Amino acid sequence: MHQPIMPDSMPRPAARYAHATLVTNPARWLHTAGQVGIDADGNVPDGVAAQAKVIWHNIAALLAAADMSADDIVSITTYVVASAMEDGLAEAMAERDTFMSGRLVASTLLTVPALVRPEWLIEIVVVAADQKAA
């Protein structure tokens, strides 16, 4: 079971995430590389929100290939180009929340001056822990 950890002795998180996620007896782990908003045809849509939608679609594919789902995600790290922060960040976080179906997991948001390609505005890394025997 994945359990959000949010002690009363700490301030509440700044958004819809948990300060930590406790994983009991994981059978398998999946660590993704940073995913950027490139679709299967090599297209990169304009804007943070549109790229986030593609990224979550690609993360779903990675999870499915590992016989996992969003329910197995325990940690999310999101990198957003600082100059694009006003370009749909709220919508991008809503994409995350929708993908996670309201589940709270450990999550970190960082701003960066740039990603490797100028058209990339957001990059997301997830860690998933599966408690089913392989």
Secondary structure blueprint with pairings:
Elements: E1 2-5, E2 20-23, E3 28-31, E4 35-36, H1 48-65, E5 73-81, H2 89-99, E6 106-112, E7 122-130
Parallel strand pairs: 5-6
Antiparallel strand pairs: 1-2, 3-7, 4-7, 5-7
Helix pairs in contact: 1-2
Describe what you observe in this structure:
The strands form two sheets. Strands 3, 4, 5, 6 and 7 form a five-stranded mixed β-sheet that branches. A two-stranded antiparallel sheet has the order 1-2. The chain contains two helices and seven strands; from the N terminus they run ββββαβαββ. The protein has helices spanning 48-65, 89-99, and strands spanning 2-5, 20-23, 28-31, 35-36, 73-81, 106-112, 122-130. The protein has 134 residues and is of the alpha+beta class. Helix 1 runs parallel beside helix 2 (89-99). The protein is globular and about 40 Å long.
In short:
With 134 residues, the protein is α+β, with helices and mostly antiparallel strands. 22% of the residues lie in helices and 29% in strands.
- Helical proportion, percent range: 10-25%
Give the structural class. alpha+beta
CATH class: Alpha Beta
Order of helices and strands: EEEEHEHEE
**Residue share in β-strands:** 25-35%
Low-confidence runs: none
Instruction: Give the biggest beta sheet.
Output: 5 strands, mixed
The gyration radius over C-alpha positions equals: 15 Å
Molecular shape: globular
Overall mean pLDDT? 92
Instruction: Quote the distance from N terminus to C terminus.
Output: 16 Å
The count of helical stretches stands at 2
The total tally of domains equals 1
The CATH topology, please?
Answer: 60s Ribosomal Protein L30, Chain: A
